[in-house]
Amino acid sequence: MYVSPLVSIVVPCFNYGHYILETLTSVLEQSFPHWECIIVDDGSTDNTRDVVVKFVEKDERFRYIYQPNKGMSGARNTAFKMAKGSYIQLLDADDLLEFDKLNVQVNFLHNNPDVDIVYSDVRFFTDKDKNTLLLNYPGMDGIIPMPRISGRGATIVKAFLRGTIKINTALFRKSILNKIGYMDEKLTIAAEDWNFWLTAAIYKLKFFYLDIPDTCALVRAHSESVSMPDSKKLLKTRPSTEAMLESIYETYSSLELLKKLDSKVVSEIFGNKALNEISAGDIKKGLYYLYLNILWGYRKLYYLHHGIYHLKERLIKNIII
């Protein structure tokens, strides 16, 4: 007999008491009833506690934890340690979930035991017009450039080195935390989630993009959000993104870890990185990554040939300059 699993919804919150009422209401309105919602108040000084306690008093599925400020990753990690569910849903305290998201994704994971992480699409809304859902940030055309692919291994790593999925779109098995660990608390906002999904891809966990109506994550576009693409916020988040990618390269340079990785994954991490570094002029770093790829990667002769070509081009350019 099929017993519906428990989903742990993880909501970190820092001074978002004016938004979290709507966020927790969207949890209550989920068509899937078997969930616990863990709200980690990360040192808020506003009315967050007062808002959340009302939900806790009315519904025992809500749990409230207060801690000194540790940042977004620290708050999520606190909730991970307390989660009782078989599946985990991440939800930012200013965002929402469409009503059928958990129901559809839980059923999908149950029927597809080989899939580790299922994710949906994302829509954006503003405080002024909450009923109009946008394909991109307000004022921007087209569909937001988020990977929308399924699979595992090198294909996913390649896609995730170029961009990442929105944090609220995914539902994942709690068991993956035993494989990839918790979120990196050293990374700042806008980088820690990218690192989390990329690490999952590097460890060959299987992702599946499921495009079904009423399962989107709804991201609030507002002046306080780091998601908003204004120039000042982008300038603040760009260094952390670069630092995140560099930390990936440094982490997986370990010979112990390289032995565990698929050769195609190694090439996606180090092969292309080597060519880019040589072309950009950092020959020492480029040759180091090329060496790692030749030792542990895929298509060794291909990268060796192109590495030598780029090296010649760079040396010629240096002589001319």
TrEMBL record:
Broadest EC class assigned to this enzyme: transferase
Keyword Methyltransferase included in the entry's annotation: no
InterPro entries: Glyco_trans_2-like (IPR001173), Nucleotide-diphossugar_trans (IPR029044)
EC number in record: 2.4.-.-
GO MF term list: glycosyltransferase activity
Domain Glycosyltransferase 2-like stretches: 8-179
Keywords per UniProt: Glycosyltransferase, Transferase
Source superkingdom: Bacteria
Any Pfam family: Glycos_transf_2
Protein's name in the database: Glycosyltransferase
Species name: Rhodocytophaga aerolata
